[in-house]
Amino acid sequence: MFIPISSLIHDNQTAAVSVGFKNLLLAILDANPYLGDGSKQALATAARMALENGGALTLLVIDEPGTTGRDPKTRLETLSWHMREQGVTEYKVLEQKVTAPASVLVGDVADEIKADLLLLSAEAVHSKFVDANQLAEFVSCPILLIP
Description:
Blueprint: E1 9-10, E2 14-15, E3 23-28, H1 37-53, E4 56-63, H2 72-86, E5 92-97, H3 102-113, E6 117-121, H4 122-126, H5 132-138, E7 143-146
Parallel strand pairs: 3-4, 3-6, 4-5, 6-7
Antiparallel strand pairs: 1-2
Helix pairs in contact: 1-2, 3-5
């Protein structure tokens, strides 16, 4: 599918992709219970796309190895606050502990919920929490990495 770059630019500052994705999966792979900048940007992008396209949004929260139990209540409250700030009131939250490589887990969940777009922060790849090559192999829908 070809998407002209001019259709991606909104208000000359923010990229907005509107190609009709209806079942969005946002993977949150962030040990910070208040979310890092990359996770906040990915969340804002997913919320905007869900609102613009009238799509369903699922937040997949994955605990990094060794971070389990680091204030999950605060993280859920933070996610909820950010979603309200973006104007999203309807979304699902799935919490998962890493039992396989995170990339495989993300692919399994994407298949399970029949996601048509996966969004995640590029920080998850940079921090080596997920492997971009494995994401490409195990995720069967398009992937949008948010810087």
